[in-house]
Write a structure and sequence with these properties.
The chain has helices spanning 110-125, 130-147, 153-169, 177-184, 188-199, 203-221, 226-232, 238-249, 253-263, and strands at 11-20, 29-31, 39-44, 48-53, 56-60, 64-68, 76-82, 86-93, 102-105. The chain contains 9 helices and 9 strands. It is of the alpha+beta class and 264 residues long. The strands form 2 sheets. A 5-stranded antiparallel sheet has the order 1-8-3-6-9. It has a 4-stranded antiparallel sheet with strand order 2-7-4-5, with helices on one face. 28% of the residues are buried.
Length: 264
């Protein structure tokens, strides 16, 4: 689970449990601008999305659990690359679980998917004792997540020099995985595994998404041309930038500008 996650919290309430189907959201990109009144724990059974939450980029895929803390995020956008199904548990705790959102890859844990299905069925069934049974199932889910923890703090500390360097230099330098691994004093394959366990995607994809995230901010300013933004964000050329932008955002940079203008 997340490095800063408090494991001594108590669940003080479950607000609701829902299943989100493949056709729940028609748009490829969804922006949520409201305050999250509950913590959310989401199990993704299928599909592929990129989630922009505050300054984090979270990649969701089948057998991924995503945690979102209650409160008002600076940014919460979901880009659906392939629509899928998930179960979302909305709940309260006596103390913050984590200040940051995070993903956990649970592909090796066969219990979690069935636990989420059971808590959904129990919640919507509303049989006698359903609420306390749902609480018990949610505690079981967190117990399994703790067993599934593949990114303990010492692992994050190992890759921290590279992560810091990425955030400092992603607009200036061409960052290669071997160089990043060398900064951490580990083998490239081990570095890639630790990085993907923590961020849900490879270092190369993470860097590209940081650039695309920054390009969206520049496009909103309406001060630069698409070609200038491609150069500022350190893409090799405008064509590669436009292709990657559409791949992750679902629209071209020019279409993004038009949609942004029309929404003001």
């Amino acid at each position: 689970m997340g490095d800063s996650m408090d494991t001594k919290f108590m669940i003080t309430g479950i607000d609701r449990v829902i299943m989100v189907g493949q056709d729940e959201y028609a748009d490829q990109k969804i922006s949520f601008n409201h305050t999250l009144k509950s913590n959310e724990l989401i199990f993704h059974f299928s599909g592929h999305s990129t989630v922009y939450f505050d300054d984090l980029i979270l990649e969701t895929a089948p057998n991924t659990v995503r945690f979102l803390p209650k409160g008002k995020p600076q940014r919460y956008d979901v880009m659906h690359h392939e629509k899928g199904e998930c179960i979302d548990v909305f709940f309260q705790t006596d103390r913050p679980i984590s200040e940051c959102a995070f993903n956990v890859n649970v592909a090796q844990n066969e219990k979690l998917g069935s636990l989420f299905k059971r808590i959904f069925a129990t919640w919507v069934g509303r049989n006698d004792g359903y609420y306390f049974e749902s609480l018990s199932l949610l505690y079981n889910i967190f117990a399994e997540l703790q067993k599934n923890n593949h990114s303990p703090k010492q692992h994050s500390l190992k890759i921290k020099p590279a992560v810091d360097h990425i955030h400092d230099r992603f607009l200036q330098d061409e960052l290669s995985t071997p160089e990043l691994a060398a900064m951490c004093g580990v083998k490239e394959s081990y570095f890639q595994r630790l990085f993907k366990e923590k961020y849900g995607l490879s270092p190369k994809k993470y860097i590209i998404q940081l650039k695309l995230n920054h390009s969206c901010d520049l496009l909103r300013l309406e001060r630069y041309s698409v070609a200038q933004i491609a150069e500022i964000c350190n893409f090799s050329d405008i064509y590669y930038f436009s292709r990657k932008f559409k791949e992750y955002m679902g629209i071209t940079p020019t279409e993004f500008i038009k949609k942004y203008k029309s929404s003001k």
